[in-house]
Structure formats: structure tokens, C-alpha cells
């Protein structure tokens, strides 16, 4: 849902604003509607983004972003001198305001050290004083992620109107062609991407054997199709397991940069993915997706593609939101059959 425009004061000058990006790829993409709203309401103001190096490629794929400042600040660690160094960089760029998307104390400290006068964000870790335009989320009924971030574009406690823009990423066709050529992929054959990893934990992973059976079914129905396994270096083992069960797939796990992975997905006919950052990349690129949910809530962070299917068994034990299955059986993912996913995927490929 969109924010009521009457609640937003439009600035008439050309000062810069800063957005401090989330530390996770999926969250960063779901924050993109916030950037759309800021650009809509402040069309003459440049938007800079401070982002971790592993998130920066996603931010560069957002047309609203003027400049990305890559940071080496690590999630879970705090070195005051490092934060002071980045604060000095931000101070020199003279921002009029900052939107602090991570909810931690240290990220609210950064713009305060930089002397940015207007600091907008959620209460988070009791950040009174560091955040001086403070929003509050309802923990009993948390907003879906896109609304959670988009709400920062309006004054606190503003009611939502009807239509919220969905996340949008952009990749130039020439970049897709260049990446496909460099990776030995064909631009003339259908390409299906599997994203079998999940940074959050193994509970979110659809079994490797299920991915392998689905790949075999796809190859039988579409012999010329390219089935590509994508993921980070942490996903190499699970992708190798899938490849051992279903030879003939193209395993690019750990072999691409995030920029390259984004381009591969941009040219894909379809993606099958766990609830992961790459799922939300496909959603932002408006690629057809089948999203597999187990311990997480599909309503909290759904795909927004024109053609998208969210698969969840809605078991009584879920969504548990745990990294590992607390009951030891992982039925929420194990019992999603490859045959069921194929019935959803087949009409997408035929279309």
C-alpha cells in the first residue's frame, strides 16, 4: 500500500539525502519502494546509499540511486574508529537528512557522528536522540517488509493509502549479453535458475534431492533448456549435491559476482528459489518465480513479479522462523514435492 502523499512535505532545494541500506540482499530489495517514494516526492534531490560491499550491486541496479558508497562495516561487529572514518566521509557530502534502515544502535550512531541533522528510522535498539524522527513498528502485528521500509517516507503514524510501488531493479540488455557470453550461457535457449541456498539457515532449504528431481523433469520436457544453479560460495556443497543427482546442469555457485548473478537472473525464463536474497533479485527484475517457503511467512516477504507462485504447506508448527528445524523433521520443506512444483512451473515455461 502507498503512503498518503498529503503527509509528506516536498523540498524545493537540491540537497542530497542519504539512505543507509540493510545488511541483507533481500531486505535491500524490499526497501526499494522507499527510494521510489522519496524520488517521487523529492524529484530534484539526489539519493546516495551507504551499503555493505555485498549489497552494493543490488543498490546500483536501482535507478533512483545517484551514488553508492560501499562500506566494509561488518554485521555483528563494532569498531569505533571505523565508524568515525565513515562518518567523516558522510560529513563531507553534506546530507540534509538520512534514512537509517538497519535497526541497530551502531548504524544510528554513524549519521549522528556525521552531523546529519535529520535522522529518520525506527526505534530499534532504543535509539532515542540518535534517531530524531522516530517510527514505531507493532511487534504483535509487524508490517510486511516493503511497507515497513516505505513507511519511513512519511511522517510517523501516517496511515497508508492504496497502492505501494513494488521493488524494481534494472539491468541493461547489453550487460546481460556480456555476462552470458563470459559464462558460456546461451541467450537463445530457455534458462531456468535454481537458487537452492539460504543464508538464514538450513531450515529454509528445499532438499537437494527435490531440486534434482525437478531438474530431471524439466530436461525431459524441454531438452534444450539450460538449468543453472546459482549461489554464493556457501552454497557450493548443496549445488554439487544437486549436480551429482542430476548431471548436465550448469553449476555457477560460488563462480559469479553478485553483479553477474543479477544479470543471469535478468535474462532467465524462470527461477525456482528458497526464501533468499536471490529470490528477491528475481522479483525485483520481474522474472517469473516459484518461491518455496517453510519456516518463514510468505506474506511477510512475498515475490512481486507479475508471474509468481508462493508455495507453503502452512503446517501447524510453522512458520517457526528458526534457522534449524526445532522438531528435527523439516516437514515444511521436505513435504513440498517436486511433482507439485512442476505442476506450477510447467505452464510458466510453456507460456
Automatic annotation (TrEMBL):
Which top-level enzyme class is recorded in the Swiss-Prot or TrEMBL entry? transferase
Q: What Gene Ontology terms for biological process does this UniProt record contain?
A: lipopolysaccharide core region biosynthetic process
One GO molecular-function entry? ADP-heptose-lipopolysaccharide heptosyltransferase activity
Q: Which Pfam families match?
A: Glyco_transf_9
Keyword Transferase listed? The answer is: yes
Q: Give the E.C. number(s).
A: 2.4.99.24
What GO cellular component entries does it have? cytosol
Q: Which SUPFAM superfamilies match?
A: UDP-Glycosyltransferase/glycogen phosphorylase
- Which domain of life does this protein belong to? Bacteria
Q: Which residues form the signal peptide?
A: none
The protein's annotated catalytic reaction(s) are: an L-alpha-D-Hep-(1->5)-[alpha-Kdo-(2->4)]-alpha-Kdo-(2->6)-lipid A + ADP-L-glycero-beta-D-manno-heptose = an L-alpha-D-Hep-(1->3)-L-alpha-D-Hep-(1->5)-[alpha-Kdo-(2->4)]-alpha-Kdo-(2->6)-lipid A + ADP + H(+)
Q: Which UniProt keywords apply?
A: Glycosyltransferase, Transferase
**Family annotation (PANTHER family):** ADP-HEPTOSE--LPS HEPTOSYLTRANSFERASE 2, TETRAACYLDISACCHARIDE 4'-KINASE-RELATED
What family is this?
Belongs to the glycosyltransferase 9 family.
- The identity of this protein, by name, is lipopolysaccharide heptosyltransferase II
Amino acid at each position: 500500500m502507498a503512503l498518503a502523499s498529503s503527509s509528506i512535505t516536498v523540498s524545493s532545494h537540491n540537497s542530497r539525502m542519504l539512505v543507509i541500506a540493510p545488511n541483507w540482499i533481500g531486505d535491500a530489495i524490499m526497501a526499494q519502494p522507499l527510494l521510489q517514494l522519496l524520488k517521487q516526492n523529492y524529484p530534484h534531490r539526489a539519493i546516495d546509499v551507504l551499503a555493505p560491499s555485498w549489497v552494493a550491486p543490488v543498490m546500483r541496479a536501482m535507478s533512483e540511486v545517484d551514488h553508492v558508497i560501499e562500506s566494509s562495516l561488518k554485521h555483528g561487529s563494532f569498531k569505533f574508529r571505523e565508524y568515525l572514518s565513515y562518518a567523516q566521509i558522510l560529513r563531507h557530502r553534506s546530507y540534509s537528512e538520512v534514512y537509517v534502515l538497519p535497526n541497530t544502535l551502531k548504524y544510528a550512531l554513524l549519521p549522528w557522528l556525521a552531523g546529519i541533522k535529520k535522522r529518520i528510522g525506527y526505534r530499534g535498539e532504543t535509539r532515542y536522540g540518535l534517531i530524531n524522527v522516530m517510527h514505531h513498528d507493532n511487534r504483535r502485528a509487524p508490517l510486511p517488509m516493503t511497507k515497513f521500509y516505505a513507511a519511513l517516507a512519511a511522517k510517523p503514524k501516517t496511515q497508508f493509502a492504496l497502492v505501494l510501488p513494488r521493488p524494481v531493479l534494472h539491468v541493461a540488455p547489453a550487460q546481460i549479453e556480456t555476462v552470458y557470453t563470459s559464462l558460456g550461457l546461451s541467450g537463445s535457449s530457455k534458462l531456468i535458475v535454481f537458487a537452492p541456498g539460504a543464508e538464514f539457515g538450513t531450515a529454509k532449504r528445499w532438499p537437494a534431492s527435490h531440486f534434482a528431481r525437478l531438474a530431471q523433469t524439466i530436461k525431459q520436457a524441454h531438452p534444450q533448456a539450460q538449468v543453472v544453479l546459482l549461489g554464493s560460495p556457501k552454497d557450493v556443497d548443496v549445488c554439487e549435491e544437486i549436480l551429482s543427482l542430476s548431471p548436465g546442469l550448469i553449476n555457477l555457485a560460488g563462480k559469479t559476482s553478485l553483479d553477474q548473478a543479477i544479470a543471469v537472473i535478468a535474462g532467465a525464463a524462470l527461477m525456482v528459489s528458497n526464501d533468499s536474497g536471490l529470490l528477491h533479485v528475481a522479483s525485483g527484475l520481474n522474472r517469473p518465480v516459484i518461491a518455496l517457503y517453510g519456516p518463514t511467512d510468505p506474506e511477510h516477504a512475498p515475490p512481486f513479479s507479475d508471474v509468481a507462485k508462493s508455495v507453503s504447506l502452512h503446517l501447524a508448527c510453522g512458520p517457526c522462523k528458526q534457522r534449524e528445524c526445532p522438531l528435527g523433521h523439516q516437514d515444511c520443506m521436505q513435504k513440498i514435492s517436486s511433482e507439485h512444483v512442476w505442476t506450477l512451473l510447467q505452464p510458466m515455461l510453456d507460456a
